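Action item from last week, closing it out:
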Amino acid sequence: MAYENYTQVSWTPATPITADRLQQMSENTQQVKDATDDVPRGVIKLKEVTGSLTYNSMNTYHEIINLKNEGSGNPNNSVTLPASRYARITLNFPGIKVSAPGQEDSVYILRVTQGNIAAAPTTLCTWRISQPIHTFLDASAGVPTLPTNHQIRGSSFPSYFGTGTYSHVIATGGGISGSAGTGIFNIEIQRDSGNSAANPTTFIIPCSESKMQMYLEDIGGQG
């Protein structure tokens, strides 16, 4: 633990330089280094997406944002961190947009994975998002009789849900290594079907309306 062996070494004129005093000064320097090394280092990598993403599949994960080496001429957003650190992965998520009927009993699953997306990466955490109840009316088919005080959403007024900030903390173990598998982090989304997967409606991640961000922070050493 930082400073547990720290002892002030005082000096006055003619104070003898002894091995014990020099050793304590070295110990003090190491204690300061240990304490400084444990301080959080802040944001390590950040990525933003500003173009909306559209899907209509069921029970299939789609990669929506990641931290990785983007290749020649593009940013290297892969993560490198030493051993025995804590890191926080954060997603600023613009939510899910639905503007047509279908699959109202489905659940949306966000997950964070670590490793190459094409090579069965490790799942670090998942979040399940249930969409609210919403009713869409097709005016061309006529308007049915409605219960008193029942409010109806038209198809020109889409539903938005799931918007918010999601985060997950990991330990770096023996270290995270750049563009290797341990230095790649992905966030994926899947629509998990309810009673039926027939006629799924399109769902959108509306990044063009509110950009999506993913970033990884070093939040301190493990002591």
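Closing note: The helical segments are 19-37.
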